[in-house]
Design brief:
alpha+beta; 32% helix
Length: 600
Amino acid sequence: MRRRVARKLSVLAVSAAVVSVGAAAPPGPGGARPVEKVPVAAGYGGAVASVDADATAAGIEILRKGGNAVDAAVATAAALGVTEPYSAGVGGGGYFVHYDAKSRSVHTLDGRETAPLSADSKLFVENGSAIPFADAVTSGLSVGTPGTAATWQKALDAWGSKRLGTVLKPAERLARDGFTVDETFRSQTASNETRFRYFPDTAKLFLPNGRLPVVGSTFKNPDLARTYAELARKGVGELYRGDLARDIVRTVNEPPVAAGSGWNARPGDLTAKDLATYRVRAQAPTKTTYRGLGVYSMAPSSSGGTTVGEALNILERTDLSRASDVRYLHRYIEASRIAFADRSRWVGDPAFEDVPTKELLSQRYADSRGCLIKDDAVLTSPVAPGDPRHPAACDARGTAAPTTYEGDSTTHLTVADKWGDVVSYTLTIEQTGGSGITVPRRGFLLNNELTDFSFTPASPAVHDPNLPGPGKRPRSSMSPTIVLDRHGEPVVALGSPGGATIITTVLQTLTGFLDRGLPLVDAIAAPRASQRNAATTELEPGLYDSPLRTRLEAIGHGFRLNPEIGAATGVQRLPDGRWLAAAEKARRGGGSAMVVRPAR
């Protein structure tokens, strides 16, 4: 693709001034030696980018041993289950997007968690009212059937070249020998300390000797090392039909609460049948064309592909490469607002809901919605959804469906190999620390993914496609994305954690890279804005403290400060055949980018 080189934007240039962070700390007691973090690397043989240096190194190790992008992605994900246990692990789920260089095609796996088969629309209702959100989160009631381990095996069976036991080895070693605690790990533990103490197994693991882990110390998880070894030896069926499955069911249905804590950890109703019948969905990706490029992502149950795709289609009619900083941000914010209005109304689990995926991604529908945007005024939120099956130009009538809350503790990894294959993989246990419940003697936290459902109908006047149901997948915002050129070859792949802000982070990063001419690492580092059909748009400090905020407020925008939005990673194919890996410069303590054979 011929890249448009835009001028350096005053609003986004803030990012270019951010220095690399995450330098190696001293070795911790017990011998764990941290790997240095760098946010960008270029070279040959393949590339890996994640939030964590040890996890990135695990993926690189597999690539160096002849593994492909899928093998390395699973290895990286398993290592993140060790070093980012509050964000991901075998107790959660996620979405896997794979580009096959040989066939020049994109495939996806929906490894989202599912509700118990006994669940109905009143899963989170007691005495006629919704359970308080915090009470629902830290309970067995919030735990969905995990999909991560099944996703790993499905991906390896379909496209991998190594056995599960081989790609789990780096993570098993990391869990056994330990990793060096950084400030992010300590602060995330501290923010969960109160509820972690409700559960003796969680406190024993994550609050060693009853205290917060010390920065620079070595954190070991021998229980997780044994769990990985068991999965390697017996296969992932152990988590769905074996002793591990029974341990999960028992923990969900009888949450092991500390005596005297006073915490009411509502029991779930997960059964052996729920685990035994769980299946990863292999499905077609969403696709939209943007500036002549093919943008591929996750179809429902995730709303990521449809919402990012609709917003890109709306922005297609504006030359963002020539727009002023104010006009660019205004148009991006308004396109996000409209796309979220449609997401809340139309997107749910397609096994239960009639989701108009094709129509949501049509240019005709985008044009009918995009004409609502004016350069001298701001739409009033919440914006009402349109009808993608019967588009009516500039129609703002109807009843809006508000955006439901999603936890932001998710993680994303991006991988490429020497054959040109690419993986963009987002995985999660929902919010930081998931349900707070550790499976005894197994070393991992269980998700609270079912709180992504609407507890009660979002609007009594509009059908809510995201209410719980038996075996239903809750709606997600995860948006692992791969962009191909006109010849079907990869241009860039990326994704981010951040709950519902994942969608806006991916959208802003894509437009910063494709339209505004920013290098990938700077498009990732750029200060973010996130509008999700709300009265105010969230801004990171780099924009909130910028003169641009005043100029946007003059149009009618309202803003509130969000200290940090998302933590993206990406890989890019360079014209000379090298891979470039890029990660955050500062968010979450900085990310980690590596290549197999570095080159200038």
